[in-house]
TrEMBL record:
This is RlpA-like protein double-psi beta-barrel domain-containing protein. The keyword Transcription regulation does not apply. It comes from Xylaria flabelliformis. Gene3D superfamilies: RlpA-like domain. The lineage of its organism: Eukaryota, Fungi, Dikarya, Ascomycota, Pezizomycotina. Keywords: Signal.
Length: 113
């Protein structure tokens, strides 16, 4: 019994809680992004709002996006200076995973993987 409790305690010690950010998600046509990568409409990429972009500190990291009963992942490749607090701008391929492109804007939760 002692070994089982020790193992469970060790697992709990390595478990971290995920803090999700809530904001509007819009879509854009990617090209050469602020992180120096060139992408296209089919690339699974995201541009972060200025505060979350943190001067490029998150370039190349992935985020998980949840909304409208769906979930997808995208790579940080750009800055979205026009996005509000918590807002993200994604490629059409990513937006289409969550909602129809015609919607244009939807509220989502997202977090770094």
């Amino acid at each position: 019994m002692y070994a089982k409790v020790t193992i469970l305690a060790a697992i709990a010690a390595f478990t971290t809680s995920v803090i999700a950010t809530t904001g509007d998600m819009t879509w854009f046509h990617p090209g050469l992004g602020a992180c120096g990568e060139t992408d296209n409409d089919g690339s699974p990429v995201v541009a972060l709002n200025s505060a979350s972009y943190a001067n490029g500190a998150h370039c190349g990291k992935y985020i998980t996006i949840q909304g409208n009963g769906h979930q997808t992942a995208a790579k940080v490749v750009d800055l979205c200076p026009g996005c509000g607090s918590g807002g993200i701008d994604v490629s059409p391929a990513i937006f289409d995973d969550i909602a129809d492109l015609d919607v244009g804007r939807i509220q989502v939760n997202w977090f770094f993987q």
